[in-house]
Amino acid sequence: MLGAFGQAIRLLVSGDKEVYFIAWTSLRLSLVSVVIASALSLPLGFLIGLKSFPAKKQLIAFLNALMALPTVVVGLLVYSFISRAGPLGFLGLLFSPAAIHIGQVILCFPLITSLVYSALSRLDQRLPETLITLGARPAEVFRMIIWEGRIAILSALLSGFGRVVGEVGVAMMLGGNIRWYTRTLTTAIALETSKGEFEFGLALGIILMAIAFLVNFTLHGVIKHER
Amino acid sequence: MNAEPHLQTDPLFCVDSLRFAYDADPVLDLADLEIRSGGITVLIGPNGSGKTTLLKLLNGLLPVSSGVILYRGQPLNPQTIAGLRSESVLVHQDPYLFDGSVYGNVSYGLKVRRTPSEQVHQAVAEALRRVGLGGFEHRRARRLSGGERQRVAIARALVLDPKVLLLDEPTANVDVETIELLERLILYLNEGGTTVIVSTHHPAFAYRLGTRLVLMEEGRLVAGRENIFKGVSESTDERFTYFRTGAQVLRCPAQEGRFTTAVLALDDVILSKERIQTSAQNQFPATVRRVETVDHTVRVSLDCGFPVQALITEYSVDSLKVVPRAEFYVTFKASAIRLY
Question: What percent of chain A has pLDDT over 90?
C-alpha cells in the first residue's frame, strides 16, 4: 500500500505525460457529462420539486429506480443502440468520448434530478412567496431559488460527478479504453490490474481519489468563500 | 369604530363568499368583507383563525379557488394579478431573509424593477434609516437579532413605496422597542396614504393602531363585542382621565400617559329613555341609527356625538321601543373604559 502511494507520487512528479492525459481525460469526461446532465436535471428537479402535475409520484418512483441502474447495464443498452448494427450505428459514436458522455449522462441524470428535487421539496415556502411579493418574475424566482439552494444543488452535482468519475462499465464498454483517446483512470486501473500490475493500478486509484477530493474541496471552498 | 381619518370611500378589496382549504382542510370561509383605501385594518384572532391565509389571498400568493376577491373593482386572477403585485407587499411573520447582506435584501425588489443603482442606494439608505437600522447595509442579514430581522423585512417592503402594505404578525417575537417603532412607522406610512392591513395577537397594538378591527375565529369573521373610540386624552386629575372622542369627552379611570384609543365592551353600555341617577360617570343623549339582531341579542348603533354600540336583549328592544331615530340616553361607567 505504501509502495502504491510512493508510486502514485512518483508518477505525478515525474511528469509522465500519459498518466496526466489519462487523469485529464477522466476529469474532462466526467465534468462535461455532469454539465450536460445538470442542464436536464435542474429544470426537471425544479419542476418536480416546486410544481404539482399528474403522474408526479410515478415519475419520482421511476427516477429512484433509475438511480440503481448498474453501469454495465447502461453500457450494454447504449452499446446496443450505437454499435454498427444498432439503430444509431450510422453516427459512428461507439468507442468515442461522445459515447462515454451518453452513458455517463444516463447514469448521473436520475441521481442529480432526485437530489435537486428532494432539496427543493424541503425548500422554505417563504422564499418563493417573498420573491413573488417583492415583484420577482418567474425567471427571477428561478434564479434566486438556485442561488439560495446552491449548497444543496452543488451537493447534487458533486454526487453526480462522484457517480461518473468512478464508474468503469460505461467508460470501458462505450469508450473502449483506447490509449491517448478514451482511456480513463478507471479503465486504466482495470487494464493494469488484469496485467498483474497491482501497484501501478493502486497508484492510479490514488490519483483518482485525489482528483475526486480536489474537485469536492475546491467547489465547497468556493461556496464557503461566497458565504 | 368611529374614527377613520384617512379612509376613502372607494373599496380597495371586496371579498365575497371566499372559501379556502389546504387540501381538504377548510381554513377560511368569509361571507363578505370590504377594505377601503387609506385605513389601517387590523386582523385580530387566535392562531388558526385564518389571518395569514387571508393576507396571502389578498396579496395573490394563494389562488382564489372559491368565491371572489375584487381589487380596485377587478377580480383577482392570473390576468389582473400584476396590478396588485406592483402596488402591494406582504411581510411574513418570521420573515425569510436572503443569504447575504442587509443591502442585498432591501434592494432586491428595486433591482427586479430595474431601478437605476444610484436611486437604489438612496432608497435603501432611507428605508433602513426609517426602520432605525441606518448604516446596517453591509451587515449579514441572517446574523441579526429577531427584531432587527423583522425591521430589515419591513425596510425591504417599504423601499418599494407600496400603496398596500400587508403585515403578518409583525409584533410576534420582537422586543417592546421594535413594537413601538413599528407603531410609529405604520402611522407614518398610513399618513402618507399607504393602506395597511396587519394581523396581530397583540390587543394593545391592535387598539392603538387600527382604524378598523376585523375579528376572526376559525376562518370566519365574528362581530366585535367592543366599542373602540379613537381620540386623545386631554388631561388627567386625581379622579379621572378626560378622553376626547368626536364631540364628547369621556371620563375614564385616572392614569398618566398619552392615550389615543378608549375601549368599552358593548354590554357595558346601558340604554334608557330618561337621564338616570347613577354612579356611572358617562351619560350622553343619543339617537338610534341602526338596530340589528344577531343570535338573540340586538346590536344597537347610536350617535351621541361619537358613534357607540350597545348590546341588549330582544325583550329590551320591545319594551323600550328601540327603533331607528328614537332618542335615548347612553350610560357607562368610567371604570368600564380601558385606555390605550
Answer: 64
Residues 6+ apart with CB under 8 A from B261: B207, B208, B228, B229, B230, B231, B339, B340
Chain-chain contact of B98 with A148 (C-beta, under 8 angstroms): yes
Query: Which residue from A215, A101, A81, A207 is spatially nearest to A157, judged by alpha carbons?
Result: A215
Q: Which three cell numbers stand for residue B284?
A: 350622553
- With an 8 Å Cβ cutoff, are A134 and B160 in contact? yes
Q: Which residue has the cell 413605496?
A: B161
B-chain residues near A137 (CB < 8 A): 112
B186, three cell numbers: 405604520
Whole-model pTM?
0.78
Which stretches within chain B are classed as H helix? Answer: 51-58, 81-87, 102-112, 117-130, 146-158, 176-191, 203-209, 314-320
pLDDT digits 0-9 by tens, A63-85: 999 999 999 999 999 999 999 99
Residue B264 CA to residue B30 CA, distance in Å, equals 26
DSSP state of B60: T
Nearest to B45 by CA among B195, B165, B176, B213: B213
Model ipTM value = 0.84
- DSSP H helical segments within chain A, as ranges? 2-13, 17-50, 56-67, 71-82, 97-121, 126-133, 138-148, 150-165, 169-170, 185-194, 198-226
